Amino acid sequence: MTEHIYCRHSTELEVPFFDVDALHIVWHGHYVKYLEVARCAFLSAIGYDYSEMGRQGYSWPVVQLNLKYIKPARFGSRIRIDLAVTEIESCLRIRYTITDCDSGTKLTKGSTVQAAVSLADGRMQFQTPPGWLEAVRRHPTFQAV
Question: Burial letters for 47-70: b for 16+ Cβ neighbours within 10 Å, e otherwise?
């Protein structure tokens, strides 16, 4: 079965010195931060950032995270984090690929799943809130099923 991609988004950044070890290789834990940077850029682009989520009465904790390290990112390199949104109705599922901008080398693959949780009662929502669906459908690359 082919995975449907609802929309795509890309973010670039330069690897800062404080993210690397003595060999100038990015410490593995910082890749989680890079996914978050890309996800925040996407959410901002659709007008549904974490502040807006709260205003609408929801938090969206990460409930699953997967990473596969392929090659290390290095100090000073430009990296691109491409994300593909693959589920929007029961959760927010995103697939990520991190590549080196200069060489095009794939560095890391990953995915996250976030679930909407009501701030009023702390209950996980089994369908995403209407405000989320409206926002994601506004992204210029949105493709309905």
Answer: ebbeebbeeeebebeeeeeebeee
Could you tell me if 46 and 139 are in contact, meaning their C-beta atoms sit under 8 angstroms apart? yes
Q: Flag whether pLDDT at 93 surpasses 80.
A: yes
Block residue for tokens 């082919």: 2
**Confidence (pTM):** 0.94
Host H or E run for residue 131: helix 130-136
- Tens digit of pLDDT for each residue in 120-145? 999 999 999 999 999 999 999 999 98
100-109, Cβ contacts within 8 angstroms, sequence gap of 24 or more: 100/71, 100/73, 101/12, 101/77, 102/77, 102/78, 105/71, 106/70, 106/71, 107/69, 107/70, 107/71, 107/72, 107/73, 107/79, 108/31, 108/67, 108/68, 108/69, 108/70, 108/73, 109/67, 109/68, 109/70
Residue among 7, 3, 4, 5 at smallest CA distance from 136: 7
